[in-house]
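[SOLVED] Predicted holo structure with S-adenosylmethionine

Edit: marking solved, answer below. Original request kept for reference. I posted the sequence and ligand SMILES and asked for the 3D complex as structure tokens.
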Amino acid sequence: MFRIYAHWGLPRTLPPPSLSLTRGRVCVRSYQAHQQQGEELISWVRQNGGHVHPSLCLSSIGNGGMGLIATQPLVSGTLLITLPPHLPLSLPNSPASSSPDYTLAQLTKLVPDELWALKLGLKVLMERAHIGSFWWPYICNLPQRFNVPFFFTGPEITNLQYPPVIYQVKRRCRALLDLEKELRNILTEVPSNQHPFGGQEVNASSLGWAMAAVSSRAFQMHNSKGSARLMLPLIDMCNHSFSPNARIIQQESKEGTSFSVIADRHLEEGADILLTYGALSNDILLLDYGFVVAENPHDFVEMRYDKAMLDAARMAARLNGDGFSQSAVSRQSILEQLNLEGAGASLQVNFGGPKLVDGRLLAALRVLYAQDSDYDSVQQRNLSELQMLDGAPLGDVIEKKSLKTLVAICALLLGHFPTSITEDENILKKIDLTEAGRLALEYRVAKKKLLVDCIQALSRRITSLEKDTMQ
Ligand SMILES: C[S@@+](CC[C@H](N)C(=O)[O-])C[C@H]1O[C@@H](n2cnc3c(N)ncnc32)[C@H](O)[C@@H]1O
């Protein structure tokens, strides 16, 4: 199950950024060049009607990344940045026909909707190729490389050890390669005055760069006209925290939507300005942003609900009884209500997050362990009661069996990983790891620790039930 080989990662680094080299300037993110470009970006925002608090600067924050820093203490409520409506970069709404933007709009239709970052990425590539682009001071400040997994080598992708995310990486690789092919065919027919990339070739690597630039930096805006994703220059220099010290607000006016960042706490001198990117799992953080958070409260490990797997877990937990596949028709209807059986069933169940265990899986186990004689009691419970971890809605005996089976499932999932946490932690101590190699290790260690945490929390519940029974 955990031995999927993905040996077609795209080249690790982008080829020389052909699109920017033609401008006579090279986007190199050396420290000094970066500082200077950072200052140019701040000046550009101010020159174009935006506000940047004088006590803010762009600075290196380690790992080659940059961030926004307070150079003086700032009180909570301070307005840090404001971008007027014309500074965000987004896909144009109704471009004039026979303009490059119109061609671009046609090209975005080739991209599946769920890969919205690739759609907006085409616009970023277009501005990167456009000599004299209004957004050049912004585009030029974007990182040249992104540590997202579709740039990993095959072995690095395999080293993630978690099939759902490996599947997503492969899908993204495939989408980039497919789009490269389609664009190559279409763009040869486009007249030069309508060519969105100034006649330059766009390949899977530059598409990947653009998709990562967008997925790791774009914001979603909602207003009366609907929702849209956009790039917010300078605001997107803020790094992420689940306990942020600043927030974004949106203001509507007849000119459009402007965006501001406000300090949400007192900021000490030298504080990083941190926003929250949302309640995101490590899968999304890895795939879209190229980093993971240890002990991420929003992370989870997924598995496919399958009675054969539950049977294996029951046997591993040394619990007797008939196989779950023999379950009575009466239980079937509850499993259907839980959407785990029947047409259109949704079989993905998760461990982790604030609930610890997917309520549907817990309810299914409780129901599957119920005897025919318990059925009246099952009928008296509503579905949400059956899904709550607190309490033992069908009695302590069924509860202990259900919890022991869940512990066994976590242990089986853990056993599917080819290496243990200790082995991974030893590899992490090596100094010659690549950035991608380290990220893959951190990612899989976080998944395994999540399962260990689940086992420990569920075991504590079993122990407390056993104590109650003995009293
Ligand atoms: C919106 S940008 C923030 C600015 C970025 N650091 C830069 O140098 O341009 C998001 C990227 O910053 C980095 N980042 C943000 N928050 C992070 C965090 N908490 N830990 C590690 N990297 C983070 C990741 O590379 C992510 O893709």
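OP edit: Residues 65-67, 143, 216-217, 236-237, 239-240, 289-291 surround S-adenosylmethionine (CB under 6 Å). Thanks to everyone who chimed in.
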